Amino acid sequence: IVELTRAAHGEVASNMNLVVTNGFEAAATRFGYGPGVVVPSLYLHRGRRYECTPEGLCQMVDPEGEGGAAVILSSEKLSDDGGWERVPENHVVTVGADHSVTMRPCSAGA
Known about the structure:
Elements: H1 2-9, E1 14-21, E2 26-33, E3 43-47, E4 49-52, E5 58-61, E6 70-74, E7 85-86, E8 91-95, E9 101-105
Antiparallel strand pairs: 1-2, 2-8, 3-6, 3-7, 4-5, 8-9
């Protein structure tokens, strides 16, 4: 994508948040390059289940005795609870079918 953008428009600022999934696994990017680029935010939250009370308090919960797991990728925090992790700029996040999460840097190349 970077090479195509450079070929068509020269050295311009560009950013991309992209999420792809097959329904079991997912990959997401928080990526930007070029002069003056501002990379949009991307957040991650891990837990058992995300729920909202009738009063409007939303949070990831880890109920006792229940199985399952959840990972949320979101452009903004969905609540004020402390479990949100900001994905660093120019990183790829992968979520496995087992809900494992990895983050690694990516670059625009030379």
